[in-house]
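Renewal narrative, Specific Aim 1. Our central claim is that a sequence can be written position by position from structural information alone. The example that follows is taken directly from our test logs and has not been curated for this report. It begins with the structure tokens describing the chain, in the order in which they were read.
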């Protein structure tokens, strides 16, 4: 139970009365925690501690253990992201104050979760080993192979990724097979084959917005921005409502990379519109993020005129 002095503020944070706070069911509290993890940019320290203790208590109970365990992991991940966001401007300021300081560069890259150049630091051998064993324990789950292949490809382990692809293909062949066939070919240096695989993906499933989205992502990672944008637009057009903001957000980033700030603002505004009109979300981090980006882009346009 939280400190009695914190109850008024906690009730405001959760949008309930103090009486409702005491009578709140586990289901309601879990749902509210889930929403807060998505909608609140920075959790106050006392809020974090209250949620942490509540979830630790629920982990001890069989009926709530699985959900509470996942929420606790998400809570810690959110806290880590918050601290990295706080570290970013400070690390950059440290770098500006001492441009030749290696540790300042490292702090800046670490805040942005960028990989280090040292292979022994950057490679994911332990996480790969975990997923290899996880796949062995759950061989009939197609999605498990996707997580494993992502990690293997990050480390250039294409032969093992190919084995995982064939194992997944024996379960079911969807657009994912062509997607990862292309990703493996790309990592092996065979770009023409990769492009053919991704085209085949949308040729086989032309009505799948996810196939177009994955093709767009793959092209964007090759800096083939105009082709990627066309595929993102196609995916956004095809996705049933309520739609996700991934496509317009990606196009906003591409537009800014290309120096087209007006289009980047337009894409961010599309994200806000989708949140408001298709999800009925008018406040919280889901829309605040895009509003901050719109303001930043407007300021950048003024600076660079």
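The sequence written for that structure reads:
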């Amino acid at each position: 139970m939280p400190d009695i002095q914190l109850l008024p503020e906690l009730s405001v944070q959760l949008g309930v009365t103090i009486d409702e706070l005491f009578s709140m069911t586990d289901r309601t509290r879990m749902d509210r925690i889930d929403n807060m993890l998505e909608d609140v940019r920075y959790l106050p320290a006392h809020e974090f501690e209250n949620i942490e203790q509540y979830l630790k208590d629920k982990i001890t109970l069989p009926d709530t253990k699985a959900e509470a365990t996942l929420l606790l992991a998400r809570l810690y991940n959110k806290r880590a992201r918050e601290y990295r966001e706080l570290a970013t401007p400070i690390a950059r300021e440290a770098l500006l104050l001492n441009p030749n300081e290696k540790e300042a560069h490292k702090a800046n890259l670490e805040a942005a979760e960028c990989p280090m150049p040292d292979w022994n630091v950057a490679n994911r051998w332990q996480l790969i080993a975990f997923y290899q064993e996880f796949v062995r324990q759950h061989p009939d789950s197609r999605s498990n192979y996707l997580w494993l292949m992502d990690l293997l490809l990050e480390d250039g382990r294409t032969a093992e990724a190919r084995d995982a692809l064939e194992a997944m293909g024996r379960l079911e062949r969807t657009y994912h097979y062509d997607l990862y066939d292309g990703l493996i070919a790309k990592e092996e240096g065979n770009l023409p084959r990769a492009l053919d695989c991704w085209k085949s993906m949308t040729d086989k499933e032309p009505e799948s917005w996810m196939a177009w989205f994955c093709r767009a992502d793959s092209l964007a990672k090759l800096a083939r921005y105009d082709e990627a944008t066309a595929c993102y637009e196609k995916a956004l057009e095809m996705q049933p409502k309520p739609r996700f903001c991934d496509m317009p957000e990606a196009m906003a980033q591409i537009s800014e990379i290309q120096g087209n700030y007006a289009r980047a603002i337009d894409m961010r505004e599309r994200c806000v519109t989708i949140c408001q009109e298709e999800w009925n979300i008018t406040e919280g981090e889901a829309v605040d993020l895009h509003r901050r980006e719109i303001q930043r882009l407007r300021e950048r346009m003024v600076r660079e005129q």
